Amino acid sequence: MNIILFGPPGAGKGTQAQKLSKEFGIPQVSTGDILRANVKEGTPLGLAAKSYMDKGALVPDDVLIGIIKERLIQKDCKGGFLLDGYPRTIPQAQALDKILTEIEKPVECVINIVVPEKDLVERISGRWMSACGASYHIQFNPPKKAGVCDVCGDQLYQRTDDTAEAVTQRLKAYQSQTAPLVDYYQKKGILKDVDGTKDIDVVFGEIKKLVHKFK
Ligand code: AP5
Ligand code: ZN
């Protein structure tokens, strides 16, 4: 089962990907997480990506296509995967189609998590992250103990690109470079909209229903 979780910054792709990954036993492939891990380790890739990310701009396509090519051929992706944050441009989607044709695993469905812009800013500014990948919201999804991850017990932190300026740029990048993919996948007949303004568990239930229809 190969699924793309699609939507603007803050729509809830990461939150839903974590839950779906557990439910279906397939890995979450988040290009944002892969890039952040590289930034943290100070790899050449991370050093190159950081300046784009902190500004809220997209990292160049050739970098992302390289990352995804390498990731999808790994063993744990054999039974399927959940893409979170990729593709974000038409060239990235075309490259993905090519890679998946080669490994004979086409994308089965694209879940478009729809949330209006005013809610996105509120969500992103209240987000707190854990090193283990879990994410929380100060108001909508608080951890059991303030500032501490329920899963791993680490201290929570805020992302360096969750500043007001970077968020504005991320939303702009979404509108100009990523939103055209809605049409791209609609034409393929595999795009399904989900109302992302509902509670996290309600959205999860809706996505599960849609995914089961494709199985
Ligand atoms: P990335 O990490 O992918 O960030 P993003 O797309 O901006 O998305 P977010 O992680 O901000 O949001 P999300 O949809 O996962 O929401 P979440 O579940 O956390 O990318 C970061 C950067 O890396 C990019 O700007 C770019 O520079 C680079 N990059 C990555 N991939 C790239 C690519 N393919 N090409 C080029 N560059 C790339 O939820 C947000 C908050 O809302 C949380 O606090 C959560 O608890 C809360 N929440 C979630 N669901 C709900 C709900 N239903 N109700 C209330 N609150 C909710
Ligand atoms: Zn954790």
From TrEMBL:
A GO molecular function assigned to this protein is: AMP kinase activity
Where does this polypeptide localize? Cytoplasm
Q: Does the keyword Glycosyltransferase apply?
A: no
Reactions listed under catalytic activity = AMP + ATP = 2 ADP
Which of this chain's residues are annotated to bind ATP? G10, A11, G12, K13, G14, T15, R127, S135, Y136, K198
Binding-site positions, AMP: T31, R36, A57, L58, V59, G85, Y86, P87, R88, Q92, R159, R170
Which stretches of sequence are listed as region NMP? 30-59
Query: What is the top EC class of this enzyme, as a single word?
Result: transferase
Q: What GO terms in the biological process aspect are recorded for it?
A: AMP salvage
Which Gene3D superfamilies does this UniProt record tie to the protein? P-loop containing nucleotide triphosphate hydrolases
What's the entry's take on its domains?
Consists of three domains, a large central CORE domain and two small peripheral domains, NMPbind and LID, which undergo movements during catalysis. The LID domain closes over the site of phosphoryl transfer upon ATP binding. Assembling and dissambling the active center during each catalytic cycle provides an effective means to prevent ATP hydrolysis.
What this protein is reported to do is described as: Catalyzes the reversible transfer of the terminal phosphate group between ATP and AMP. Plays an important role in cellular energy homeostasis and in adenine nucleotide metabolism.
Q: Which family does it belong to?
A: Belongs to the adenylate kinase family.
Question: What protein am I looking at?
Answer: Adenylate kinase
